[in-house]
Specification:
Blueprint lengths: L2 E6 L4 H13 L2 E7 L8 H10 L2 E4 L17 E4 L6 H6 L1 H20 L5 E7 L4 H7 L22 H20 L2 E7 L2 E2 L8 H10 L5 E4 L4 E3 L1 E2 H13 L6 E5 L5 E3 H11 L6 E4 L14 H7 L7 H18 L6
Parallel strand pairs: 1-2, 1-4, 2-3, 4-5, 5-6, 6-11, 7-10, 8-13
Antiparallel strand pairs: 9-12
Helix pairs in contact: 1-8, 4-6, 7-11
The structure holds nicotinamide-adenine-dinucleotide (NAD).
């Protein structure tokens, strides 16, 4: 019997790649729920949906009645729906709080009266950024780090606050209402079709637009970038592994911590940039260092990233350069 799987936010970046892997591996009856606020029904998603008979529920899940359109007996629910991206935190922090909170609470209230067996909630490294920044918590950072943000009034942290609510909400509803739950905290996932609100696509756009001198904001900050194939594999493993129930996992690449300057110069080289670089300060609210300790995911899930950052960044930059050169505007 095939497993019945729902991906809320399944048209988005990570959702699409999980959907693709599940569809290709076979043995899944797949449904996505999305309002296409960010994810788009582009050619790639359309052909996947058609080839694998994926059900698509186009609805805004901040409205509780949208859940009436779902079945009530999924084996697995991936909760990916969210407003994501630093730009939204500064442009509409109020809406981000409302939308993400309603998505979380509506999903929890629906789960409590459904017969769904397991849910996976997608959280973020931003939830513990303050523990590293303000209290010098260790990097690479493991899952038992206390969650903390530095400034509760700063719009940037609205996203992390909603994800903290989600972590606590999913874990505790699961205990009280008797379904299984796993949480993954992503760390700078990147790859083709990731939208246009993240650092790599924005940098490619600036190179493609001819910026020179090229400004390197936060040049000495570090990040560890996690290629989408690896992040999707880690997420599916967390869903499929019974010993992952009631556990939190850091999904990222602990061997890929690099400075922003290294990243920008590498992207510039791929884009054929021959101008000059200038170092600039960091964006407000952005952390100086980020790298996950993924030992727990390795031990319990067998998770180990396979794509080194240079290979993954090259694939991603080439996808975006093609996109910008093609003049398509499906995501703009
Ligand atoms: N990409 C990363 O590096 C990263 C890092 C940390 C956490 N995460 C989390 O992982 C999850 C997936 O991230 P992503 O990068 O794929 O983001 P994404 O924006 O590409 O996908 C989220 C999807 O949710 C949908 N959505 C938003 N509001 C909705 C609503 N009201 N009703 C129905 N659907 C709605 C969007 O249309 C989109 O397709 C998110 O929860 C995000 O917070 C991602």
């Amino acid at each position: 019997m095939s497993k019945k799987v729902l991906l809320l936010g399944g048209a988005g970046f990570i959702g699409f790649h999980i959907l693709q892997k599940l569809a290709i591996s076979g043995g899944y009856d797949l449904t996505i729920g999305d309002n296409f606020f960010r994810g788009k029904m582009d050619d790639q998603l359309r052909s996947l949906v058609n080839a694998h008979d994926v059900k698509v529920i186009n609805a805004d899940f901040t409205d509780p009645s949208a859940f009436d359109r779902l079945d009530s007996d999924y084996h697995q629910v991936y909760m990916l729906a969210s407003v994501v991206g630093v730009e939204y935190t500064s442009k509409m922090p109020n809406e981000l709080i409302r939308i993400n909170t309603q998505l979380i609470m509506n999903t929890l209230e629906w789960l409590k009266q459904s017969a769904c067996q397991k849910v996976l909630f997608t959280s973020t490294s931003e939830c513990y950024a303050g523990a590293v920044e303000a209290f010098g918590y260790r990097v690479p950072t493991p899952e038992d780090v206390p969650l903390c943000i530095e400034d509760i009034t700063h719009p940037r942290f609205t996203y992390a606050v909603t994800k903290m609510l989600g972590e606590s909400g999913f874990m505790n509803y699961a205990k009280v209402y008797g379904f299984d739950c796993t949480i993954v905290r992503y760390h700078n996932v990147y790859g083709p079709r990731m939208g246009f609100k993240h650092v790599i696509p924005q940098v490619v756009k600036r190179f493609a637009g001819g910026e020179d001198p090229f400004r390197m904001f936060g040049h000495d900050q570090t990040r560890s970038f996690n290629f989408i194939d690896d992040a999707a594999n880690g997420t599916i493993a967390a869903m499929e592994t019974d010993t992952a129930n009631n556990e939190i996992f850091h999904i990222g690449d602990m061997n890929a911590e690099i400075t922003i300057e290294e990243l920008l110069r590498y992207i510039g080289a791929i884009a054929g940039f021959s101008g000059t670089y200038v170092r600039e300060g960091q964006h407000s609210g952005s952390v100086s260092r980020r790298c996950p300790d993924t030992s727990k995911a390795k031990a319990i899930l067998g998770y180990e990233p396979e794509t080194d950052w240079k290979t993954g960044v090259r694939k991603t930059v080439e996808w975006y350069l093609d996109y910008y050169r093609s003049g398509k505007d499906v995501y703009e």
